[in-house]
Design brief:
The protein contains seven helices and no strands. The protein is 79% helix and 0% strand.
Length: 194
């Protein structure tokens, strides 16, 4: 009996010691966790509002050109795959307005002697690839509208930022003028209930 009692007491003591050691190993500060979360969110694009907006003319022009390219290409995909009439209407309006915006951007950039070379960044290419591989129908409609909300909010932030702090008057005027249709697209996307 005495051996059983000693064994039980020893087991309890070892368990308690193990718990205390484990606690020390898991004592990670809140600051460390928050810092790691911020880094992870930056990689995933969740901290997009913290992303640096280009304020130089060339950076702005190429960022807008890439945005227009994504909008035009995604609208072409939506024309084929969307099933909801309002989503199709949004896509057609986006395509029309962003084709116009691309032409106006090239003109404004030309007055600043800036060549525009649109290229999709990894995020926009990934979004476009998602649309291309998505099945047509209601799920596609939801995906397209959600992407448009995200893309147009980022485009609106870009345009407003350059409009107020850009370094080229022709491109600042372009940014100011283009803000209205982008806001209209964002409002339209936000109004669609799927």
């Amino acid at each position: 009996m005495r051996i059983a009692t000693l064994t039980t007491v020893a087991a309890i003591a070892l368990a308690a010691a193990a718990c205390n050691n484990n606690q020390a190993g898991n004592d990670v500060s809140t600051d460390t966790n928050l810092a790691e979360d911020t880094v992870a969110n930056d990689v995933l694009g969740a901290n997009a509002s913290n992303a640096a907006m280009p304020t130089d003319a060339s950076g702005f022009a190429n960022a807008v050109a890439a945005s227009d390219m994504y909008e035009i290409e995604s609208a072409k995909v939506a024309a084929d795959k969307a099933s909801n009439a309002e989503v199709k209407s949004l896509a057609q309006q986006i395509r029309t307005d962003h084709e116009k915006s691309s032409t106006e951007l090239k003109s404004a950039a030309g007055t600043a002697d800036i060549s525009v070379a649109p290229k999709l960044d990894a995020e926009k290419q990934g979004m476009l690839d998602q649309l291309k591989t998505a099945a047509a129908g209601a799920d596609f409609d939801k995906l397209y509208v959600e992407q448009q909300k995200t893309a147009h909010q980022k485009a609106l932030d870009l345009l407003q930022g350059y409009s107020s702090g850009g370094d080229n008057e022709a491109l600042k005027a372009f940014a100011t003028k283009t803000t209205a249709p982008v806001k209209k697209h964002l409002d339209h996307a936000n109004s669609i209930k799927l």
